[in-house]
């Protein structure tokens, strides 16, 4: 039997894979707009962002915007079971 975490991952991946490219782009654009208009985003001097996989929300526009407005940007790195944040 799959663990609850694996079941959630499977469910999310199935949903992500079901989006048509145009619909995905519309959703991404809406989410970017909401994020960039959020007061927490505007006040933040540092952000941590994961690098997106193929069918996930494209995080590159978030990274680009953060850099363009002068925020410090960090991405997670996992090696040998150790988690660190690396500045871009």
Keywords:
4 helices, alpha+beta, 88 residues
The number of distinct helices, counting runs of at least 4 residues, comes to 4
Q: What is the H/E string?
A: HHHEHEE
Strand fraction: 15-25%
The level of helicity is 40-55%
Biggest sheet architecture = 3 strands, mixed
Measured on Cα atoms, how large is the radius of gyration? 15 Å
Shape: globular
Runs in which pLDDT lies below 50 for 5 or more consecutive residues are: none
Structural class: alpha+beta
Mean pLDDT across every amino acid position:
90
Number of strands: 3
* Terminal Cα span: 40 Å
Strand order of the largest sheet: 1-2-3
Structure in words:
The protein is an alpha+beta fold and 88 residues long. 52% of the residues lie in helices and 19% in strands. It is built from four helices and three strands; from the N terminus they run αααβαββ. A three-stranded mixed beta sheet has the order 1-2-3. β1 (46-48), α4 (60-68) and β2 form a beta-alpha-beta unit. The longest helix is centred in the N-terminal third of the chain and has 17 residues, at 21-37. The chain is globular. The protein starts with a helix and ends with a strand. The mean pLDDT is 90.
